[in-house]
Amino acid sequence: MTIAPKPSFVLSRRHLLGIEGLSQQDISGLLDLSEEFVELNRQVEKKRTSLRGRTQINLFFEVSTRTQASFELAGKRLGADVMNMSTSSSSMRKGETLIDTAITLNAMHPDIIVVRHHASGAVELLARKIDCSVINAGDGSHEHPTQALLDALTIRRNKGHIDGLLVAICGDILHSRVARSNIILLNAMGARVRVVAPSTLLPPGIERFGVEVARDMREGLADADIVMMLRLQRERMNGSYVPSMSEYFHYYGLDEKKLAYAKPGAMVMHPGPMNRGVEIDSLVADGAQSLIREQVEMGVAVRMAVLEALSRNLPNA
Amino acid sequence: MMLSDRRPILLANARIVDPSRGLDIVGDLLIAEGTIREAKKGIGAAGVPEGTDVIDCRGKLVAPGLIDMRAFIGEPGEASRETLASASQAAAAGGVTTIICQPDTSPAIDNPATVDFVLRRARDNAIVHVHPMAAITKGLEGKEMTEIGLLKAAGAVAFTDGAKSVINAQVMRRALTYAGDFDAMIVHHTEDPNLIGDGVMNEGEFAARLGLLGIPKAAETVMLERDIRLVALAGGRYHAASVTCADTLEVLRRAKDAGLNVTASASINHVTLNENDIGPYRTFLKLAPPLRAEDDRKALVEAIGTGLIDVVMSDHNPQDVETKRLPFAEAAPGAIGLETMLTAGLRLVHGGEVDLMTLLRAMSTRPAELLGLPGGTLRSGAPADVIVVDVELPWVLDPNELKSKCKNTPFDEARLTGRVVRTIVSGRTVYEYV
């Protein structure tokens, strides 16, 4: 069986720096394209040639296992030459600035650079200094667009649609780029979004994002179709936001009892990596309502779709 | 410079605005031997001393030279950022005839010898007047009081820990009490560092959308409230170095109404820009304290009009490329401003938000009064620190033309209306725009 992607869809931009600014058509187009790659990835022969001859650099200033692996696999399956650079091996450790790194890499004529950085706005800063396409693989607490797209794909495949669903995003909203990208995407696609967190982990001004805000899980999960848990970002917690992991789990950790507050059959998601026993109980994470493993599968397909869509805009494409 | 180098100057047919006495006339201003002789109609027609340089200023504004109450200069120790010479060139081009430099240098200006060093360096290299503020605490560490008496005698015009706040209330109380004996003014950066935390911009929706941690307005009001209580306890003259938000103005209002000797400055950035100007992480607009919301900006402008805010200063803070071309959270705060404070302020005048007299008062007369300096006036006998301004001249700011060593201006490529065309310091023209 051969699956040829529809060449009709074009993402009318050079970079994917965030969900902000994407139209509903852009998002739907990317999700449709992703569906084709889901099918492809389930074949024995997974290889495409649309990025043949292209160079993709994965530039990770912050450690990541799944996102980096996912982008690497996506690029390779589309035929690109993929190079991985991470802080542990790069000159960033020797004090080279982000801009210098960007200029150096630019001189090597890559076609696509995938960037993760610990500071909000860093990917946009880098994109301004680079001639090729840039994909944001997560910048600080700002955006993580491919995560939101893979979450949307997962939801759409399981529920058949996104509009009208009630999605509860729970946990460390303050530090979460996943939450920001998801809120923007889900709103654009017509879902109802509710954020659930202790007030110390909610960014001031969140109520102006077009979301409902809840401070406890019973109220927060009521009628939810999707319960999206976030990782408690202990490495970003410079200061006391919650008193202890055990108190946090007691009030906000998703266990079977709290999941029962949601709609029967509500699906559970988590962007990973999980802190089991902190924000999510293993029984739920591995349970029948969990979509967590499927999210990982969708990740590769979505990243292939993004690479494919952006490559259609590259010179000589 | 010899006095004999200076020919008399007649600035003829100008609009003369002198906020020190509410004067706004069309007339002539005569300068001789480094001082202002007089300002009135018809001096030129009545005859001027032989050799007088008569400059036609028809359609232009003549006003007292500006006194910038808060500028960070890199001497001693950080001359790559700015020297007294380069700062003074920038100042002259911006109509600033007196720079009040801040003590957070390396080493800090916290002893009489360093005050003396700065004054000597300025005398030899600067083309405008320079007066340092000295530190409140040794090494700006917030622990031990400096030699306030000796520093003042050496030439420190006020006392501040620069961009640092004195956290220890006991230290602040003692400094206020002791400084009071010398009639020395304490100028304080009112930001509680613990409430700032990891924050990098104004707290609120915009910070949340950018994924940046916010700085609450309370970081400012909490510190100012504390200080006001301490002033009530200790007496002394107190000046809030850089106020940014409407909430703070209430605190100030109460302090002034209670008769406390409390005054305040706002930076030109905070009265002309707001947090939205940060746009896509523009680090040149990362400031400390941070830019606030438009409502706050409007409240500040109104407070300049009522006099609740006494002074508008540049908060000049040169930062080079290495400290600014970074992700927003990692970039150093600060913007240059000596060269643009007046032209930026004229935006408020052209926009009808502030009248010219009020703006000039906040940038010249009030700082002179607060610091006990002789400038800020066009009265006969005053030092001839005078500027000529073409208020209507449109121009676009090209950062490469700025005289400052660093180019971190928030008005990068901005369209501006009005610029200084001549700056006179002690009767000598030090800058001319042709």
Helix/strand-derived class of chain A? alpha/beta
Number of strands of chain B: 18
The helicity of chain B comes to 25-40%
Q: How much beta of chain B, percentage-wise?
A: 15-25%
Mean pLDDT of chain B: 96
Which helices and strands occur, and which strands form pairs?
The complex is a heterodimer of chains A (317) and B (434).
Chain A: H1 24-41, E1 55-60, H2 66-77, E2 81-86, H3 98-106, E3 112-117, H4 122-127, E4 133-139, H5 145-159, E5 166-170, H6 177-188, E6 192-196, E7 212-214, H7 217-221, E8 226-229, H8 245-252, H9 256-259, E9 267-269, H10 282-285, H11 292-311
Parallel strand pairs in A: 1-2, 1-3, 3-4, 5-6, 5-8, 6-7, 8-9
Helix pairs in contact in A: 1-5, 1-11, 2-11, 5-6, 5-11
Chain B: E1 9-18, E2 23-32, E3 35-40, H1 43-46, E4 53-56, E5 61-64, E6 66-71, H2 84-94, E7 96-101, H3 112-125, E8 129-132, H4 148-154, E9 159-160, H5 169-181, E10 185-188, H6 193-196, E11 201-202, H7 205-210, E12 214-215, H8 218-234, E13 237-240, H9 246-257, E14 262-267, H10 268-272, H11 294-306, E15 311-313, H12 321-324, H13 341-350, H14 356-371, E16 386-396, E17 415-425, E18 428-432
Parallel strand pairs in B: 1-4, 1-5, 6-7, 7-8, 9-10, 10-13, 11-12, 13-14, 14-15
Antiparallel strand pairs in B: 1-2, 2-3, 5-16, 16-17, 17-18
Helix pairs in contact in B: 3-4, 5-8, 8-9
Provide a descriptive summary of the structure in words.
The complex is a heterodimer of chains A (317) and B (434). With 317 residues, chain A is of the alpha/beta class. Chain A contains eleven helices and nine strands. Chain A has helices at 24-41, 66-77, 98-106, 122-127, 145-159, 177-188, 217-221, 245-252, 256-259, 282-285, 292-311; strands at 55-60, 81-86, 112-117, 133-139, 166-170, 192-196, 212-214, 226-229, 267-269. A five-stranded parallel beta sheet of chain A has the order 7-6-5-8-9. With 434 residues, chain B is an alpha/beta fold. Chain B has helices at 43-46, 84-94, 112-125, 148-154, 169-181, 193-196, 205-210, 218-234, 246-257, 268-272, 294-306, 321-324, 341-350, 356-371, and strands spanning 9-18, 23-32, 35-40, 53-56, 61-64, 66-71, 96-101, 129-132, 159-160, 185-188, 201-202, 214-215, 237-240, 262-267, 311-313, 386-396, 415-425, 428-432. At the A-B interface, helix 4 of A face helix 7 of B.
